[in-house]
């Protein structure tokens, strides 16, 4: 197979900055998110990329567009690469969810694979659709490098899957806005994680959210 996937999380949105669950809500990039996407595109400027794929949500398409534009490529939007559907939790902060759904949140945190937010998806639903999409992408691009822009949930699910991790522990994989990840696929079952959550293209932003005090 020999396909290299540049797996990228979209730039920051206003809801990201406010720590709100987005899921399937189509929230656009913030001004900072646009800057992040452009910085990432500049970093990848000299890379040979055969195709650019994206979730069909605007924040991912905007980020992918910055990468595709200079190459004259068209972004191929795939609904299967969407973030997990958080249902009624979308638009809420973690604190608000903890207040209104304490029992369900605890259950979801311990077993996201089998726990479904109200009117939403469980992680097993997410894993099935995103792995299906990525398998199709890698099989269509033998001996090529492609960019795939999506969301934190799908990226954590994919990384955990190819590494054979317990998917209920996927939250241990940090994934920041505009982060670059690289996975090599000599074969699907022998995937190699080359790079994880790299944000070297973002000035003064090595560890976002970290506080010394």
From TrEMBL:
Molecular-function GO term, any one: alpha-ribazole phosphatase activity
Keyword terms of this UniProt record: Glycolysis, Isomerase
Origin superkingdom: Bacteria
Major enzyme class: hydrolase
Coiled-coil positions: none
Pfam families with a match to the protein in the record: His_Phos_1
Binding site for substrate: 9-16, 59
GO cellular component: cytoplasm
Active site, per annotation: 10 (tele-phosphohistidine intermediate), 83 (proton donor/acceptor)
EC annotation from Swiss-Prot or TrEMBL: 3.1.3.73
Protein name, UniProt field: Alpha-ribazole phosphatase
Source organism: Desulfocucumis palustris
Source species taxonomy: Bacteria, Bacillati, Bacillota, Clostridia, Eubacteriales
């Amino acid at each position: 197979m020999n396909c290299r996937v540049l797996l990228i999380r979209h730039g920051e949105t206003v809801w990201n900055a406010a720590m709100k669950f987005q899921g399937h809500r189509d929230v656009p990039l913030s001004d900072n998110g646009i800057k992040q996407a452009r910085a990432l595109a500049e970093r990848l400027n000299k890379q040979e990329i055969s195709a650019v794929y994206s979730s069909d949500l605007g924040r991912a398409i905007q980020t992918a567009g910055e990468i595709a534009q200079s190459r004259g490529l068209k972004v191929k939007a795939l609904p299967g690469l969407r973030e997990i559907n958080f249902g009624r939790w979308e638009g809420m902060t973690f604190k608000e969810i903890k207040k209104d759904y304490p029992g369900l949140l605890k259950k979801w945190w311990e077993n996201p694979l089998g726990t479904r937010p109200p009117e939403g998806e469980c992680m097993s639903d997410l894993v099935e659709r995103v792995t299906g999409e990525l398998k199709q992408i890698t099989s269509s691009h033998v001996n090529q490098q492609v960019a795939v822009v999506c969301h934190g949930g799908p990226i954590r699910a994919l990384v955990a899957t190819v590494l054979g991790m317990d998917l209920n522990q996927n939250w241990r994989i940090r994934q920041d806005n505009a982060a670059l990840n690289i996975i090599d696929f000599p074969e699907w079952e022998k995937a190699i994680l080359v790079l994880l959550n790299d944000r070297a293209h973002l000035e003064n932003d090595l560890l976002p959210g970290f506080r010394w005090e």
